[in-house]
Design goal:
This protein is mostly beta strands and about 475 residues long. The protein is built from five helices and 37 strands. InterPro entries: NLE (IPR012972), WD40/YVTN_repeat-like_dom_sf (IPR015943), WD40_G-protein_beta-like (IPR001632), WD40_PAC1 (IPR020472), WD40_repeat_CS (IPR019775), WD40_repeat_dom_sf (IPR036322), WD40_rpt (IPR001680).
Length: about 475
């Protein structure tokens, strides 16, 4: 009897075919040699293998992809369903996942009136503790997120406040107006730090701070304007240090990269890359056939949040902050160059590695209308794009390959924002709703109606706890899990 059982067990082992697999990271670097894995191995077993091969002290979570599609079943079922030959070496890409998990927002926790005109911009502070909103009523408001009440109304602008930007150390807030003026504020007191900064001749289209891992405490930021110039300012001396001029039409967006260069996107169809000690033009990225509307960096989340993460740890000194921010930046960037994605009125996007080449890595097509906003997920794995064609599209952050389309909005999508764990995506639309999309299932996770009119601005707090939205109905809404 025992003998037959042994024979059967041996036969069973024979029956489980093995698959030749090659594990690789998102950049294509192979992890060890090809392995023979049993067909009944799935994501759980692959997790064990990768943790072992990487000699991780603590087990880290990974997701696995075969030709850009997440592996959620055993290898055998995948091969059968996709009619893949067992003889071929199967490349499986492992992607590290955030160890923490953000709860999806499901309800509106506060509707805060106060602004007397449309809310045009909203931004959480890097530590997620404060929120700023800019409005057509010429004010900036700071909100206390614990009591969900107004903290300060910042007065000083004479025209619509089009953009607000927190320094990544959380110490300063800068707002830019339709009149081209910039004001620096102390978020602790709500008071302006000196007079408005003047120099731009037309309205402000973007503000971006120098990353804290390059300089702490934060002093320099760059602003872009419809006048075609970008200007670097010092918040301490309140002077314009450098004027970056060379674009022939309006600059629509600006980003200060982790390597210390500045990127500007313009209606002249080009993206220019500038060094920041003298303001010299380093290179020009050409390819778009119409206005460049939006730029995003693969490292944007860590650049924005600096030393702050989902744990809410506070720091006592600029030195400590700089050190932690640098560690976070290096870990996020890995060995690959910083990537840039651009979205345009020509309905397309380009993925660039500006430090490596002035030619795009790939052209991303599929939208039927202008691309209004592009955004990398915090882990750099995905790119999301929002378009006037009412859709949000998802792309591979390394290759730029199309992954999925999220449909559900019935009006143009104005702005998108990611959850800190890169698992959920938020979109705000002209159709007055916010929607939360699940990246794993590629489906709508939550529909958030509630605004009475177009939603112009959305932001998901870097600590993952809250979402803020504002729009034409003049109210600010806070949403919770």
């Amino acid at each position: 009897m025992a003998e037959t059982m042994e024979v059967e067990a041996a036969a069973e082992r024979e029956a489980i075919n093995s698959v030749i697999c090659q594990l690789a990271d998102p950049d294509g670097n192979q992890l060890g040699a090809a392995l023979y894995l049993p067909e009944n191995a799935g994501p759980k077993e692959l997790n064990q293998v990768v943790n072992k091969l990487l000699s991780n002290e603590e087990r880290l979570p990974y997701a696995f992809y075969i030709s850009d599609e997440e592996l959620v079943v055993q290898l055998g079922s995948y091969l059968e369903k996709n009619k893949v030959s067992v003889e071929k070496v199967l490349t499986i890409v492992y992607q590290p996942q955030a160890v923490f998990r953000i709860r999806p927002v499901t309800r509106c926790s506060a509707t805060i009136a106060g602004h007397t005109e449309a809310v045009l911009s909203v931004a959480f502070s890097p530590d997620g503790r404060q929120l700023a909103s800019g409005s057509g009523d010429t004010t900036v408001r700071l909100w206390d997120l614990n009591t969900q009440t107004p903290l300060f109304t910042l007065q000083g602008h004479r025209n619509w406040v089009l953009s607000v930007a927190w320094s990544p150390d959380g110490k300063h807030l800068v707002s830019g107006s339709k009149a081209g003026e910039l004001i620096c504020w102390d978020p602790q007191t709500g008071k302006p730090l000196g007079n408005p900064l003047t120099g731009h001749k037309k309205w402000i289209t973007g503000i971006s701070w120098e990353p804290v891992h390059l300089s702490a405490p934060c002093r320099r930021f760059v602003s872009s304007s419809k006048d075609g110039d970008a200007r670097i300012w010092d918040v301490t001396t309140r002077k314009c240090l450098i004027c970056l001029s060379g674009h022939t039409l309006a600059i629509t967006c600006v980003k200060w990269g982790g390597d210390g260069v500045i990127y500007t996107g313009s209606q002249d169809c080009t993206i220019k890359v500038w060094e920041t000690s003298q303001g010299k033009l380093i290179r020009e990225l050409k390819g778009h056939g119409h206005w460049v509307n939006s730029l995003a960096l693969s490292t944007e989340y860590v650049l924005r949040s600096g030393a702050f993460d989902h744990t809410g740890k506070q720091y006592s000194s600029p030195e400590e902050m700089k050190k932690v921010a640098l560690e976070r930046y290096n870990k996020m960037r890995g060995n690959a160059p910083e990537r840039l994605v651009s979205g345009s009125d020509d309905f397309t996007m380009f993925l660039w590695e500006p430090a490596v080449s002035k030619h795009p890595k790939t052209r991303m097509t599929g939208h039927q209308q202008l691309v209004n906003h592009v955004y990398f997920s915090p882990d750099g794995q995905w790119i999301a794009s929002a378009s006037f064609d009412k859709s949000v599209k998802l792309w591979n952050g390394t290759t730029g390959k199309f992954v999925a389309a999220f449909r559900g909005h019935v009006g143009p999508v104005y702005q998108i924002s990611w959850s800190a764990d890169s698992r959920l995506l938020l979109s705000g639309s002209k159709d007055s709703t916010l929607k939360v999309w699940d990246i794993r299932t590629k489906k709508l996770k939550q529909d958030l109606p509630g605004h009475a009119d177009e939603v112009f601005a959305v932001d998901w707090s870097p600590d993952g706890e809250k979402v803020a939205s504002g729009g034409k109905d003049r109210v600010l809404k806070l949403w919770m899990g």
